[in-house]
Write a structure and sequence with these properties.
The protein is mainly α. The protein has helices at about 25-40, 45-60, 65-80, 85-100, 105-120, 125-140, 145-160, 165-180, 185-200, 205-220, 225-240, 245-260, 265-280, 285-300, 305-320, 325-340.
Length: about 350
């Protein structure tokens, strides 16, 4: 049985904030408490208020502000000799690094966070940090290395009745099944995560689950309208909570659904919108995936084959450098799909994943 979802990253004087609080409200409350703690000379409280500020900035897509905030939180935690608060700050920094495509840095910071969490006796930040390591490997496409860690974290979350982390783990495992073509298992896991998130009032987790369901409904069943309905429901939550990154990925997925339905002009418009959103928040993975969708849509709309080939080659090189194996394989499939020779085909190198 799962309890109501909560947000452990909202700490100190901010524990009254809900997991569903608008990010602008979180930022305002966090900034107010941070300034009060600094005036009172309370570095421990400053560290924990600063964590909420960092996370609000990150989820709003304000990466430079988020970078400054998590580092300030870490410095305050170190001044207070608060090991657990140091771990939370490093978790925020590692999550931001992953969002920006700096996967090696993300793994280093998240491993440090997990180690400090264990040393400081905070099992929640340790779990979140291990989850971050698992998600980093999953995003890079190294499923074999992180699949077992996802399953381990899912079992721990179920045992504690922790709804939010259960939802996260289910969605990660579902995504790996979807990407390897096991659509039925992916659908069942996304469906379970949506049900748990809804019962636990985890609106963010529910929105991500709906996005996953929409993807499977589109690719497996060819049910475009149902997929678009699910994405519209998820988008309403993203807008209400100001989830900038989730909203951009929602728009990118809407482009995918329209592209599969042969509605290439509509797909082009959605990919262009998502691309602008990802560029504004400096998120290279989302930017690359939107560029890929846009390139395919433009090719279907009559773009010159040489221009398409040049863009695909540039994208392949970029994804290889970032270390996104699954996305690199998507580019390789795009060559085949569009009937364009892949002159520079390369094998994606295995990503180093630290547990």
């Amino acid at each position: 049985m799962y309890g109501k979802a909560f947000a452990p990253e909202y700490q100190g004087a901010l524990t009254t904030l809900s997991v569903n609080s608008s990010l602008t409200d979180v930022l305002a409350a966090g900034t107010e408490q941070l300034r009060a703690a600094e005036r009172a000379g309370k570095p421990g409280e400053a560290a924990r208020s600063g964590l909420a500020v960092a996370e609000a900035h990150r989820r709003l897509g304000r990466v430079e502000d988020a970078d400054r905030a998590w580092k300030a939180s870490y410095r305050a935690a170190r001044q207070a000799a608060d090991v657990a608060a140091m771990a939370w700050a490093l978790w925020s920094g590692g999550t931001l690094a992953r969002q920006r495509g700096a996967f090696r840095l993300a793994r280093r910071l998240l491993q440090l966070a997990a180690d400090l969490g264990e040393r400081g006796g905070d099992i929640v930040v340790r779990g979140y940090s291990l989850a971050g390591l698992a998600e980093t490997g999953r995003i890079q496409g190294d499923y074999e290395a992180v699949g077992r860690l996802h399953e381990q974290l899912l079992a721990e979350a179920r045992r504690r009745g922790e709804a939010r982390h259960t939802v996260w783990a289910l969605e990660g495992i579902a995504q790996m099944h979807r990407n390897t073509g096991d659509y039925d298992t992916a659908y069942a896991l996304f469906e379970e995560s949506a049900e748990i998130a809804a019962r636990a009032d985890d609106r963010r987790g529910h929105a991500w689950a709906l996005r996953g369901l929409a993807d499977v409904v589109s690719v497996r069943d060819g049910d475009t309208e149902r997929a678009l309905e699910l994405l519209s429901e998820a988008e309403a939550t993203c807008r209400a909570m100001r989830l900038s990154s989730a909203l951009a990925y929602n728009h990118k997925m809407r482009g995918n659904v329209l592209y599969r339905a042969g509605r290439y002009a509509e797909a082009r418009d959605l990919y262009e919108q998502a691309l602008a959103e990802f560029r504004e928040m400096s998120e290279p993975r989302g930017e690359a995936l939107s560029r890929l969708g846009l390139a395919k849509s433009l090719a279907r709309l009559g773009r010159d084959r040489a221009e398409t080939a040049a863009e695909l080659a540039e994208l392949a090189g970029k994804l290889e450098r970032i270390g996104l194996q699954h996305a690199r394989r998507m580019v390789a499939r795009a060559y085949d799909e569009l009937g364009i020779p892949d002159a520079g085909a390369v094998e994606a190198r295995p990503a180093e994943v630290t547990r």
